[in-house]
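From the methods appendix. Each design record in this collection lists the tokenized structure first, followed by the designed amino acid sequence. Records were kept in a plain field format so they could be parsed without special tools. The example shown here is representative of the layout used throughout.

RECORD:
FOLD TOKENS (509 positions):
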């Protein structure tokens, strides 16, 4: 206990040492770097400063394939980091800002908008400007630390935090109608978003002092991760949800080469260094929205490295490379409903959980028309053989390798299953066995349906990844490049995702 308090007090000195060791944290963007990316180093060794600290203390687009080996090879910086988005019916400026990790105020300023409520369908918005700075090159964590993968199999949140003096061990709040402890909330977020609980705990200590401080300030209590831009997203569950989403945006944005900028609270844009890995990009993206400006962001990155090492030791000591092995084969899957039924394909490939990331999920609904969010009377069924390791909050996670942990091997992720009739934890299912009734429970949904996705070693896998397509009873998905749009094809037949009950999206075994 005392040792922990001393270590946390010492973090200020460690942060000053780290800020000096963060390459790029005092450097503005040089357009020459962009025009001549070959001038950059071809690899990045693990920084000596990090090792020393660890020793001192504890439109139609092609399908994108995620390469999950770490550390990554050098990426070539883009000629421009400006991003454009064409609005659709129902879009709001606040929703667009959340999806792209920016602010309403920034979008209004960049696009010369006088009224945030007046968006026209088909309007083109500029999402970001060129960056003023490039970020640091220092690697903070390996990829396997950011995802809820194999290294977390024996990690227990309660055990890791029980001796720490902060509010965390005594806190609880209502989550989806259930009173949950802080440790239970961290585990739930890890399972929903597939992000590492050690990362969540380090961010929670960095921003809110929840592991070291018995009585945080009122703001730290209400917004423990520092995300104050959305006042209604207060409390531990909501704040950790925002952090987990941001971590995934950075992690998968790096791997898919779709994210190059982060933005601090004052509106400053910062370009990723080309020398990062996905785990570090995730941390940089998660810290940016609550950092006041560029200098504060750099200091926060330094403090994160210090906090993480003080709590858990050197994150690179147990690096797994690659997370997805060569020669991996996708599991054989069947459509997740009874063989004598026809369901409807309502959502093409889209993120597995949260707002961005690989388009890992597909949506289906039954033939029960206009039931709104009422639970379906029909059964959703298992797409494969496997053990149920999570069944609550509208979510069922099925472990296909049978070791009882969601972060190893292939898992199936089913969402929006009603509590009444949902399969119990510990049930060993055969493909075709009942798992529950589609509903709106869990996540965000405005109509009853089933959301299904896959992960491998904690990594969300795109439904139409050509190496491991999520083929269901012979139906193979394809994405248009835009979330929720796409097709399923089998034996020369094609069905198109549609929020309707028509022949164009009717799917049968």
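DESIGN:
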């Amino acid at each position: 206990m005392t040792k922990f308090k001393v270590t946390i007090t010492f973090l200020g000195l460690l942060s000053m040492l780290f800020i000096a060791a963060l390459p790029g944290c005092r450097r503005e963007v040089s357009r020459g770097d962009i025009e001549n990316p070959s001038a950059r180093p071809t690899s990045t060794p693990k920084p000596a400063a990090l090792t020393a600290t660890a020793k001192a203390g504890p439109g139609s687009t092609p399908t994108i394939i995620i390469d999950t080996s770490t550390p990554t090879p050098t990426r070539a910086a883009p000629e421009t980091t400006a991003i454009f988005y064409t609005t659709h019916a129902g879009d709001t400026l606040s929703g667009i800002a959340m999806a792209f990790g920016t602010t309403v105020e920034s979008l209004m300023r960049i696009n010369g908008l006088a009224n945030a409520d007046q968006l026209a369908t088909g309007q083109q918005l500029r999402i970001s400007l060129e960056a003023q700075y490039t970020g640091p090159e220092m690697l903070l964590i390996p990829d396997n630390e950011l995802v809820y993968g194999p290294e977390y199999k024996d990690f227990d949140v309660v055990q890791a935090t029980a001796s720490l003096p902060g509010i965390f061990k005594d806190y609880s709040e209502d989550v989806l109608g259930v009173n949950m402890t802080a440790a239970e909330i961290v585990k739930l977020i890890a399972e929903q978003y597939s992000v590492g609980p050690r990362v969540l705990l380090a961010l929670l200590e960095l921003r809110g002092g929840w592991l070291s401080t018995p009585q945080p300030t009122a703001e730290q209590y209400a917004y423990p991760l520092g995300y104050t831009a959305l006042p209604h997203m207060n409390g531990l569950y909501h704040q950790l949800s925002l952090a987990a989403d941001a971590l995934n945006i950075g992690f998968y944005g790096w791997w898919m080469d779709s994210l190059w900028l982060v933005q601090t609270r004052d509106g400053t844009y910062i370009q990723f260094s080309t020398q990062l890995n996905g785990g570090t990009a995730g941390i940089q993206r998660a810290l940016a929205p609550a950092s006041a400006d560029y200098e504060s962001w750099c200091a926060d990155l330094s403090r994160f490295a210090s906090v993480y090492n003080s709590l858990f030791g050197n994150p690179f000591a147990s690096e797994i490379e690659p997370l997805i092995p060569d020669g991996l084969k996708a599991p054989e899957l069947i459509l997740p409903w009874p063989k004598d039924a026809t369901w409807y394909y309502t959502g093409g490939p889209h993120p597995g959980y949260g707002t961005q990331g690989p388009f890992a999920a597909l949506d289906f609904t039954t033939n029960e028309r206009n039931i709104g969010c009422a639970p379906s009377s029909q059964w959703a069924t298992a797409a494969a053989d496997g053990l149920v390791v999570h069944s609550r909050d509208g979510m069922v996670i099925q472990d296909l390798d049978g070791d009882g942990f969601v972060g190893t091997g292939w898992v199936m992720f089913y969402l929006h299953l009603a509590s009444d009739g949902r399969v119990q934890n510990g049930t060993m299912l055969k493909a075709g066995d009942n798992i529950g009734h589609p509903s709106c429970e869990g996540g965000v949904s405005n109509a009853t349906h089933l959301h299904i996705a896959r992960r491998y070693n904690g990594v969300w896998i795109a439904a139409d990844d050509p190496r491991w397509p999520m083929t269901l009873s012979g139906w193979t998905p394809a994405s248009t490049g835009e979330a929720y749009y796409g097709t399923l094809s089998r034996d020369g037949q094609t069905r198109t995702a549609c929020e309707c009950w028509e022949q164009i999206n009717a799917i049968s075994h």
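APPENDIX NOTE: The radius of gyration is 23 Å.
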